[in-house]
């Protein structure tokens, strides 16, 4: 009921605003903010650097979520989709350039066998996953979209089988073991993996940031994307919403990464 009410309120607020667009530069941080991600952060995608460093305070992790061949074609022919791809690729490039790079994790949706034993034939998520087909670890559809692979040998890829990025894998163990306290999210879809992961990690006491330019919906109506970024996430509040420019600036003020 709470989520439904917040979504309703978000759409109501948009009714008098400009037509929904993708790049709205919305941020919960002031334009002149000098926040950083600290030293114990992760990005999802998730990049994992094993470079040695002195024992300092935690560094965030970067999480790049569900950017697979099965989903990106839903948006890559639109102007919004192309902007999302370019923005996210730019972010990943900046993350990789850090020395040492922060922990970066990619999630991929796939199943152990074509029979999809992780979801079963009658589970509610089975209907959601039907459009993905019977993808396994070797299926092309389940691979990371080429624009988001920058050849970093230390990147971590995790299987997932539900909306939440940590379902059926070692995400929470990795974040805990590496002393991560902050996560920065990019991915597809905002109403699926992004919001579910933001809520779950918030409940686990992580500081969560969502890069507004790096999340997108798969349908033609971007209104829900805007409602979640400007209404649901800030008002609950489970995550800070920032622009690509703010994320890159914060990256420069953060670290060095600690593992």
Write up what this structure looks like.
The protein is α/β, with parallel strands linked by helices and 259 residues long. The chain has a single domain, classed as Isochorismatase-like (Rossmann fold, 3-Layer(aba) Sandwich). The chain is 31% helix and 17% strand. The chain has helices at 2-14, 79-96, 124-129, 171-177, 190-203, 223-235, 244-253, and strands spanning 42-47, 61-65, 103-109, 155-160, 182-188, 207-216, 240-242. Strands 1, 2, 3, 4, 5, 6 and 7 form a seven-stranded mixed beta sheet that branches. Helix 5 (190-203) runs parallel beside helix 6. The chain is globular. Mean pLDDT is 81; it is low at 1-24 and 45-57.
Distance N terminus to C terminus?
40 Å
Average pLDDT for all residues: 81
Strand content: 15-25%
Helix-strand topology string:
HEEHEHEHEHEHEH
Radius of gyration: 17 Å
Instruction: List the domain count as a whole number.
Output: 1
* Residues in helices, as a percent range: 25-40%
Q: In the CATH hierarchy, what is the architecture at level 2?
A: 3-Layer(aba) Sandwich
Query: Which term fits the overall shape?
Result: globular
Q: Name the structural class.
A: alpha/beta
What's the CATH class label?
Alpha Beta
* Annotated CATH topology: Rossmann fold
The total of helices stands at 7
Mind summarizing the main beta sheet?
7 strands, mixed
Tell how many strands the DSSP assignment holds.
Answer: 7
């Amino acid at each position: 009921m709470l989520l439904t009410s917040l979504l309703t309120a978000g759409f109501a607020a948009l009714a008098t605003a400009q037509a929904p667009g993708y790049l709205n530069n919305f941020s919960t941080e002031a334009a002149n903010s000098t926040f950083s991600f600290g030293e114990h952060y992760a990005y999802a995608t998730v990049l994992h650097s094993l470079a040695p460093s002195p024992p300092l305070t935690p560094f965030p992790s970067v999480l790049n979520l569900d950017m697979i061949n099965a989903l990106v074609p839903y948006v890559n022919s639109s102007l919004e989709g192309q902007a999302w791809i370019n923005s996210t690729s730019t972010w990943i490039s900046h993350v990789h350039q850090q020395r040492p790079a922060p922990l970066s994790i990619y999630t991929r949706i796939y199943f152990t066998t074509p029979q999809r034993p992780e979801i079963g034939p009658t589970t509610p998520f089975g209907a959601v996953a039907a459009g993905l087909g019977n993808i396994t670890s070797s299926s092309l559809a389940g691979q990371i979209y080429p624009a988001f692979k920058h050849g970093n040998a230390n990147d971590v890829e995790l299987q997932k089988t539900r909306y939440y990025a940590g379902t059926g894998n070692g995400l929470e163990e990795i974040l805990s073991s590496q002393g991560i306290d902050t996560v920065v999210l990019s991915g597809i879809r905002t109403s699926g993996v992004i919001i579910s992961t933001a809520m779950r990690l918030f409940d686990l006491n992580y500081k969560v940031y969502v890069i507004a330019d790096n999340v997108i919906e798969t349908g033609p109506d971007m209104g829900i994307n805007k409602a979640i970024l400007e209404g649901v996430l800030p008002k609950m509040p489970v995550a800070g919403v920032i622009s690509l420019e703010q994320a890159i600036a914060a990256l420069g003020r953060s670290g060095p990464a600690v593992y």
